[in-house]
Amino acid sequence: MKKITLMLACGIIAANTFGQQEKITYPITKKDNTVDTYFGVKVADPYRWLENDTTKETASWVKAQNKVTFSYLAKIPFRKALKERLTNLANYEKIGAPFKKNGKYYFYKNDGLQNQSVLYWQNSLDAQPQVFLDPNKLSDDGTVALTGTSFSKDGKYFAYTVSRSGSDWREIFVTDIATKKLLPDHIKWAKFSDASWQGDGFYYSAYDAPVAGKEFSNVNENHKIYYHKIGEPQSKDVLVYQNPKYPKRFYSANVSEDERFLFIFESGEGRGNALFMKDLTKADAPVEQLASDFNYEYMPIEVIGNQIFFSTNYGAPKNKIMVADIAAPKLENWKELIPESSSVLSGAEVIGGKLVLTYDKDASNHAFVYNLDGKLLHEVKLPSLGSIGFSGDKDDNIAFFSFTSFISPGATYKYNIETNEATLYRAPKVDFNSDEFVTEQVFYPSKDGTKIPMFLTYKKGLKKDGKNPVFLYGYGGFNISLNPGFSTYRIPFLENGGIYAQANLRGGGEYGETWHLAGTKMQKQHVFDDFISAAEYLITKKYTNKSKIAIVGGSNGGLLIGACVNQRPDLFRVAIPEVGVMDMLRYHKFTIGWNWASDYGTSADSKEMFEYLRAYSPLHTLKKRITYPAILVTTADHDDRVVPAHSFKYAATLQAASNGKNPTLIRIESKAGHGSGKPMSKVLEEQADIYSFIMYNMGMKPKF
After folding, report:
1. Is the pLDDT reported for residue 678 higher than 90?
2. Does residue 407 contact residue 393 with C-beta atoms inside 8 Å?
3. Quick check: is 558 in a domain?
4. Which of 455, 547, 462, 473 is nearest to 496 (CA)?
5. Residues in Cβ contact with 241 at an 8 Å cutoff, skipping those fewer than 6 apart
6. At 672, is the pLDDT very low, low, confident or very high (cuts 50, 70, 90)?
């Protein structure tokens, strides 16, 4: 394609915000004549040049768009007060559940507004905690995030991974635990990997160094597993496993806790993974394949004695526990230990010589303890409907679990596996009264009659008069469940009469693999129907009306928002597609996008699949001179998961198509990625922008 020179011109577009006339000057984005042909059908892609995110032309476009967006946001009269309220709410001590390594306890703590949480350690639960690693000292602006930690079994070394500016690229560093001295060992270009220790070294997964300037956009190929020995340069690391026949697939390694076995996971071609095993106790032992069908997940839980415990959805859409003898570890020899139940098995680990299993029932967590023979011992009593996460050692009866709900911040409980007794260990103090709010769960019919669960959180005494503002959130994809969770960022919206609605759409994992598949490929429209039906239900039941609904979603959820806006622009007042997959015809051509084909299919699969994707692709279904809701697109310059080109092209097309009655803006964050590891300072700015945009365009007059 010939070099494109960006030309920015200005067009005056009127924005009508509840009677207020404003003029927004949008950059007019240059078009070219790029056309692709799919099965004989020509599809124009006039903003293709925006896919090249490292050019001066694209940088100029980003700068011009941000200037318009931040100018608009700065004029919202209550934005400053909202940010102050969000900052005050976020300024509370956040402490994670302790975890035990080599006889010491570790935990993460954020004093309140620190950009990154700090890792502490203590000799016992009663000892004075000390800082072990402070990620805030790794950068001046908090954009270097701690993304993973790993301890050597002998207690000598600590490996940690970091991400810079939110990228999926990882670097691995090593510290001597006794002295806390940083060692020379430094691994670059790791991705989707932590360090998995064996002896005086560790396994990790990495790519060859990418082409300069294309680190965040080019397709990643030839993922490899290496072994790094402490004290050696990365150039001498031993290549342990690769599969050049399938250069796009992912390969990761995990060593059993007793360091006897190396498990290798191969994924990317289907919904699950292939599984391999290598006996590390035998010199030159071969890599043995245990399972090969990529449509299922095969996850080792623990090796205990001569048995390997697995969690899998093979022959069990809602998952089950199986066990195998190390002498016959292939799938055909696995035996069912705990069968599939009516709820979805979503977590499994061994603590205190027992199996601790987490199940999802109607999208809320429930926990049970079994012995290693598969006998149910007891259920763990939880405070209410919510989400739980365990930490504990396989040989220690004392464990911890964190619990959260929509109105309860993450509290930590100390749990005795033997006696089934849980006591509150730590609870944060947040500047709001949770007793003033309530969460209810409703079940509403989708377009085809399927019952969809949805959580609603709001202030007690809410009147169903059809006038309440609603923040409707959804995801619906990749077998991911939306469980209850707490966020201080919602509180000002709730305090000012808003309703937070979280819909558990098909495509997610709330009811297992069958529920997931019902929202994939040629069934993807079910996800959009479920979300649209959620809004219609809230209107029918007098919770709200069309002028009071804001829809929000990120990544695959950003796709959800874009598709639903285009299908029902009349139904929503505000839409926030965050870091969304907006170009469904080309998504698989960037970084790891090809990996999403198991959920989406691709435009190259067949004419039928191409036509189905084009029929809902947010970029390709925008129509000219339509009154779209007020839309704020968000993305980030270092997002190498869903590259910013998706949002760039969508925003340019949206601005050209909209009739201009409502603002259609894009907010592009710098030195940030898909969301993980984003510093607190950036999160507060972004949330202030999103919520002020929502409230302002709903005509709310909030008090803080």
Report:
1. no
2. no
3. yes
4. 462
5. 224, 225, 251, 253, 264, 276, 287
6. low
Measured torsion, CA atoms of residues 340, 344, 346, 348, in degrees rounded to the nearest 10: -30
- Statement: residue 9 has pLDDT above 70: no
Q: Which two tokens stand for residue 62?
A: 């980003």
Between CA 574 and CA 78 the distance in angstroms is 18
List % helix, strand, coil for the chain (3-state, nearest 5): 20, 35, 45
Query: Stretch 319-348: mean pLDDT, rounded?
Result: 98
For residue 562 the two structure tokens come to: 């874009």
Q: Among residues 429, 444, 462, which one ends one of the domains?
A: 429
Evaluate whether residue 36 is within a structural domain: no
3-state secondary structure (DSSP) of residue 314: coil
Amino acid at 339: P
Mind giving me the DSSP string for 75-127?
T-TTHHHHHHHHHHHH-S-EEPPPEEETTEEEEEEE-SS-SSPEEEEESSTTS
User: In this structure, is residue 160 part of a structural domain?
Assistant: no
Q: Looking at 555, 603, 617, 692, which residue is catalytic?
A: 555
Read off the pLDDT band of 8 (50, 70, 90).
very low
Q: Is 676 a catalytic residue?
A: no
Question: Quick one: which of 216, 174, 213 has its CA closest to 191?
Answer: 216
- Measured CA to CA in angstroms, residue 602 lies from 588, 589, 590 at distances of 7, 10, 13
What's the rounded Cα separation, in Å, for the pair 617 and 295? Answer: 25
pLDDT at 677 exceeding the cut of 80: no
The boundaries of the domain holding residue 462 are: 68-87+435-697
Q: What is the dihedral sign for C-alpha 486, 489, 495, 499?
A: negative
pLDDT at 21: 45
In a domain, 103, yes or no: no
- From the candidates 516, 526, 646, 674, which is the catalytic residue? 674
Which of 409, 429, 449 delimits the end of a domain? 429
> Helix 680-697 crosses helix 79-90 at what angle (to 10 degrees)?
140
Distance in angstroms (rounded) separating the CA atoms of residues 543 and 564: 20
- Take residue 191 and report the two structure tokens written for it: 């991705």
- Together in a domain, 549 and 629: yes
The mean pLDDT value of the chain amounts to: 93
Q: How many domains does the chain have?
A: 2
Q: Is 366 a residue of the active site?
A: no
Residues 364 and 492 in one domain: no
Helix (H/G/I), strand (E/B), else coil: 350: strand
Question: How far apart are alpha carbons 642 and 592 in whole angstroms?
Answer: 8
| Beta carbons of 554 and 579 less than 8 angstroms apart | yes
Instruction: Report the alpha-carbon angle 102-175-193, nearest 5.
Output: 85
Interatomic CA distance for residues 112 and 90, integer angstroms: 6
Assessment of whether the complete model's pTM goes beyond 0.90:
yes
Report the distance separating Cα 621 and Cα 610, nearest Å. 14
Residue 673 is predicted with a pLDDT of 67
Q: Read off the CATH number of the domain in which 576 is found.
A: 3.40.50.1820
Q: What is the residue type of 484?
A: P
Question: In b/e form, how buried is each residue of 550-580, taking b as 16+ CB within 10 angstroms?
Answer: bbbbbbbbbbbbbbbbbbbbebbbbbbbbbb
